[in-house]
Amino acid sequence: MTTRKQSAGDIIEARCTKCREVLNHRIVAMVEGKVVRVECNTCQGVHNYYPPPVVKVAKIPKNPAGSKARATSATPRAAKKDPVEIEREEWAALSPAFDHDKAVPYDMNSRFPVRRLVLHPLFGIGIVRAVIVPNKMQVLFKDGIKLLRCFCM
Ligand SMILES: [Zn+2]
Questions:
Q1: Contact 108, 122 (CB under 8 A)
Q2: What is the pLDDT of residues 122-150, one digit of tens each?
Q3: Of 43, 44, 126, 149, which is the most buried if we count CB atoms within 10 A?
Q4: Where are the beta strands (DSSP E) in 3-123?
Q5: Which pLDDT does position 153 carry in this prediction?
Q6: How many domains does the chain have?
Q7: How much distance in Å is there from the Cα of 36 to the middle of ligand 1?
């Protein structure tokens, strides 16, 4: 037997006439194998049994366009310039003045003063923007500012 027969005292889901929700109810009375009266576990009200609606998801959003509105509200952010984009533009503005012959290959054990040109194997040519003692520096590359290790004590 796969399905157990329901009997008085069992807990079943039913629509509560007072709570106006599908809640657990205790079976109070049954007639010919069918539940007729139930007691709500939430409000303790005893009422006729109303089976839960077949589709339980039911709650239709009041504003079906809501999700669409959220999607559009996210777009204006794209128009706003992100900091990386500003850094890239800064690099583009500075790079024509870069003297590639003076660029120093990046080495984490080297000293890099501010405005020194750095040649990084991954990021290409960049310029030291700031040195963060004891061992980091901000370098402006084509792809924006990167934080690199260096020996700057
Ligand atoms: Zn109730």
A1: no
A2: 999 999 999 988 889 999 999 999 999 98
A3: 126
A4: 11-15, 22-31, 34-40, 46-48, 104-105, 117-120
A5: 57
A6: 2
A7: 16
HSE (side-chain half, CA atoms, 13 Å) at 36: 5
* Residue 70 scores a pLDDT above 60: no
CA of 3 to the centre of ligand 1 (A): 26
Would 65 be classed as within a structural domain? Answer: no
Is 137 found in the same domain as 88? yes
Within a domain: 77: no
Centre of ligand 1 from the C-alpha of residue 13, in Å: 11
**51 CA distance to ligand 1 centroid (A)?**
14
What's the length of the chain?
A: 153
- The answer to whether residue 125 sits within a structural domain is yes
Residue 45 CA to ligand 1 center (angstroms) comes to 6
**Structural domain for 130, as ranges:** 83-149
Centre of ligand 1 from the C-alpha of residue 30, in Å? 19
> How many angstroms is it from 22 CA to the middle of ligand 1?
9
Ligand 1: distance of its center to the CA of 5 in Å?
Answer: 24
Residue 74 located in a structural domain: no
- For residues 42 and 94, membership in a common domain is answered with no
